[in-house]
Amino acid sequence: MCSLSNEITYPTVDVDAIRSKINDDSVRLIDVRREEDYNQGHIPNAVNLPLASLLSGDSPESAVKLFEELGIADDTKVVVYDDTFGALASRVAWTLQYIGHKNVALLEVTYSQWKELGLKTSTEKPNIKSTKHSLNLNPEIMATAEYLENAKEKDNVVLIDNRERLNFLEQHIPGSINIPYRTLATDGKILRTKESMRNLLKNRGIPEDAEIITYCGSVGTLSGLAYYALKSIGVPNVKLYVNSFKEWKKLEKPVGKQENAAYWDLSAE
Amino acid sequence: MNLKMAQQLRPSKSASKKPKIDWSRREEADNFAHTVKLYRQGKIDHDNFRRFRLQHGAYGTRMTDDYAMVRIKIPAGQIYPHQLEKIAQLSEMYSIGSAHVSTRENVQLHWVVLEDVSEIMHGLADVGLTSREACGNTVRNVMCSPLSGVCNDEEFDATPYAIATARFLLRNPLNQSLPRKFKFNFSCCEKHGMTRIVDVGLIPQIRKLDDKTMQHGFKIFLGGGLGNKSFVGHQLEDFTPEEDLLYTSIAVLQIFDRIGDRKNMARNRMRYLVNEMGWDKFKNLVLKERTIVRATQSVIIRLNINKKSNEIKRPISVSSENGSIPDGYARWLKTTTYKQKQEGYRAVFVTLESGDITANQLRAMADITKDFSAEGFARNGFSQDIILRYVHESDLPKLYSRLLEVGLANSGSLTMASAVGCSGTSSCNLALTNSHRLAKEIQRKFLELKLDDDDDLRDATIKISGCPNSCGQHEIATIGFFGGGARVGKDMYPNYSMSLGGRFDDKSMLGVTCIRVPVKRTIPVILKIIELYKKNKQSDDTLSRWIDRIVHGNESSEIKSVKDMQKVLSPLVVPPSKDDDPDFYADYGSDTSYHTVTGKGECAA
Ligand code: SF4
């Protein structure tokens, strides 16, 4: 689906590959942190697209416009990074894919990890010329509440909740299983190794050929990361329930709960 | 002075010391994953799976078959910085983002998806830890006083013996299918070790032989225990030489294995066997068995005791800058630290609310251990706490600041304020009340009222269990509670049974039942007892001594007996109507009306 160069494998790009491409204009790095953070330093040549700006538009058309302003054309190779476990970056990458952009991947580390590795940063903003991007919606990677409600009753559909365990116990979409987003990472990388990801699914009894729908608390960030974790091992049919549990509750759909246990009191938070 | 010399004179940083023993076996993780699969496919029945699961350190969880609690064994409580970091990571990946330090020096991860338990086992293997035989009918974590090696009253350090015992017994066929769980506690002295409330309790002792040589050995107590019925252990003989430690342990385990009750679930701890047989008969049996063990096995087995003392090196990182000392330091110093027998060093007891600690705090503890402890590791304690030893006295202000930054600088760990609570309804299948939260509420109240600073209360304890089982150790507390339910008409409310005067030192005794106290009245009742004490105390008195006199009928003031106490407290425990005070009918941590629900238990079963 994506090939920046031969040594790069979708959906994450390794640090060395990106270092060698920093000055290559056919690659566009997107930093999705807040503007203040970006201004204080970012990976050289990265452009800034705070997730909030993307979400405020909330239509494919406005998303296309934003990406055009960042100089992203249909064939631009895009790499996204953040400083929040890769979750915000995932959501931006997913949006690009949703509007039909083919060539997008996540940086395998967060900005903090990049810095810990002693790699270059910069405060300079790259000069970007805006460009044109087409809109070819890719609806098969998105789930709506309505879609989910029907699909989740089917045998070959698995619904995964990526919020933290206690939130899940307290309330969740009935029939979902819980894989907290922290489970998806490994030491120093935003995603587990492929082998351990496969093992996790195997232990949990989730077949890789199932249709998997992921969701989280509100806008599909943590579940966006899960989307890419699943893509990393080649699960063919993954959908993001992008409006997630917040919408589900607003629609007053049924909610499941672990009853008769005071699990919150085990937390030292 | 040249640079090299200056470097040599500076104390060096004990960066991430590594443990000598790897307790793990990675193949057990894969085997566990496989067995869970077979169980889910119905190829292994529930009872067999349950036995297997417990053997590997995974408990069931309240009202569900989908989750487990993983109990990580920490032999002698010795835990290393990289192990704390790993547990932090595992708690975020597979549990609730917090871990729990138990009363038996274990660390527990709750609400783990059963299918993820094997992942945790793999993670533990990365750092040499295991959950094997942390539950089930096995020898549980071998405990050792967190002060062993630094205690002012000890004759020698029992830690190497505790570790060697744990090492000998782990995965030993001798201990795979006992009639019931079995517990070893090593202490430093009479005061610090809870040796009389476990199956085998040991206090190190040195005796002078006729030829003037010094012989190391133990005082061994057998058949103690807490539970639906609790007993205080008996001393086997005046002195058990160290060579006999292993033979005695094997003899006791073999006897228990052979004739312990395997049918009656509620009465099969070894203490029942001792009780039914009578102490003298049991003692003789042990001595006889030991002779046989010694004769038949002495050549083959030996405890592998590593007596090489740990390297003590004060880390460099601290005390370079002299920041100002934050508020509360004096109170913290007084109520959480212990002056070691080693000149200039203290042991710092870090109190955790009901033993709970977040992943970030665990990581901070790992760093703090590296930066402050001259021995380079921490020790889990008996009271859901973590102890940092060999902290140089001049580093204490800096340590306090660091603990403060991460919310671990609560005062009162060595006082009555640090209440102990079992997991209760937060995860335990048998729980009737939320004892876990109640202990937190009591601790918060005590700290708010600065009661931890009151010397009169210092040696008293509060311990709470969520049902008549004794995981919260309520029977050995000065003021102990165990949970139950009561009702007014058809409205139920959580109601604790309160006992007074329990203790676990050389005069160990189990608390005397006093009165039943509704959950929302427990704090007022405790405060009332303190008020009564203050009114009636003698000069130079303490709360625990006063209560001790009351339970023995030796008190001369207005409250002469437990009956008198009951009388004075009874107005406080009268239930209001539900309309007047709906909150009275709800347990802590729940906004719905109280009702009791329990599942099949594994703590008691
Ligand atoms: S069995 Fe009872 S005492 Fe033990 S943890 Fe459960 S509620 Fe607490």
Automatic annotation (TrEMBL), chain A:
It holds the Pfam family Rhodanese. The keyword Transferase applies. Transmembrane segments: none annotated. SUPFAM superfamilies: Rhodanese/Cell cycle control phosphatase. InterPro entries: Rhodanese-like_dom, Rhodanese-like_dom_sf, Thiosulfate_sulfurtransferase. Residues 23-123, 153-257 form the Rhodanese domain. The keyword Repeat applies. One of its GO terms (molecular function) is transferase activity. SMART domains: RHOD. Keywords: Repeat, Transferase. PROSITE patterns: RHODANESE_3. PANTHER family: THIOSULFATE SULFURTRANSFERASE. This is Sulfurtransferase. The lineage of its organism: Archaea, Nitrososphaerota, Marine Group I.
Automatic annotation (TrEMBL), chain B:
It comes from Marine Group I thaumarchaeote. Residues 1-24 are annotated as: Disordered. One of its GO terms (molecular function) is heme binding. InterPro entries: NIR_SIR_4Fe-4S, NiRdtase/SiRdtase_haem-b_fer, Nit/Sulf_reduc_fer-like_dom_sf, NO2/SO3_Rdtase_4Fe4S_dom, NO2/SO3_Rdtase_4Fe4S_sf, NO2/SO3_Rdtase_FeS/sirohaem_BS. This is Nitrite/sulfite reductase. Pfam families: NIR_SIR, NIR_SIR_ferr. Keywords: 4Fe-4S, Heme, Iron, Iron-sulfur, Metal-binding, Oxidoreductase. It comes from the Archaea. Gene3D superfamilies: Sulfite Reductase Hemoprotein, domain 1 (3.30.413.10), Sulfite Reductase Hemoprotein,Domain 2 (3.90.480.10). Residues 135-289, 417-550 form the Nitrite/sulphite reductase 4Fe-4S domain. Residues 65-126, 338-406 form the Nitrite/Sulfite reductase ferredoxin-like domain. The keyword Transmembrane helix does not apply.
